[in-house]
């Protein structure tokens, strides 16, 4: 198994899928108009499916949605970390991906069909426990995107374990001594 990566996930504009994702041990869904991605083998395959499902959207929107969905279905891996900023509580949840992409066609709410199984390790981390540089990375607007800047994976792993952000190595280095 390769080294784990970290992914930002979002549960709707107002956090409408926060509780559902945590209660059902899954990533927070989204993209209700896009059908099952299980047959997609590449970003190009996903892009074609999104373009067919959303014919009135611009090429940029189709590309953006396809990249996010490919992150969920094709790039995330078992063992990767997922971070879910909870809009309903102003806290952050951190989990680990435990399974492959699933399309839950039986789910009555189409916004809850595209998922990955997740073991939510912590669901109560105050945003104040995360240093500002990492919070900026977690502020992206995407529903699914990789987070890698500022030693994100190691820090997210530590937050999941201890509830506290150790900061980046850069911020832990002693100040340079004066050259005078």
Shape: globular
Structural class label: alpha+beta
Number of helices: 6
Architecture per CATH nomenclature, i.e. the level-2 architecture: Roll
Residues in helices, as a percent range? 25-40%
Q: Count up the domains.
A: 1
CATH class: Alpha Beta
Taking Cα atoms only, what radius of gyration do you get, to the nearest Å?
Answer: 17 Å
**Order of helix and strand elements from N to C terminus:** EHHHEEEEEHEHH
Give the overall pLDDT as a whole number.
Answer: 91
CATH fold category name = ph1033 like fold
* Arrangement of strands in the largest sheet: 6-3-2-1-7
Q: For the record, give the distance between the C-alpha atoms at the N and C termini, rounded to a whole number.
A: 50 Å
Number of strand elements: 7
Q: Uncertain runs with pLDDT below 50, 5 residues or more?
A: 172-180
Architecture overview:
This protein is an alpha+beta fold and 180 residues long. It has one domain: Roll (ph1033 like fold), CATH 3.10.590. The protein contains six helices and seven strands; from the N terminus they run βαααβββββαβαα. The strands form two sheets. Strands 6-3-2-1-7 form a five-stranded mixed sheet. 34% of the residues are buried.
Quickly list its features.
single chain; alpha+beta; ph1033 like fold; five-stranded mixed β-sheet
Short description:
The protein is built from 6 helices and 7 strands; from the N terminus they run βαααβββββαβαα.
Write the layout of secondary structure elements.
Blueprint: E1 6-9, H1 18-23, H2 43-53, H3 59-75, E2 81-86, E3 91-97, E4 102-103, E5 114-115, E6 118-126, H4 132-137, E7 144-147, H5 152-162, H6 169-172
Parallel strand pairs: 1-2
Antiparallel strand pairs: 1-7, 2-3, 3-6, 4-5
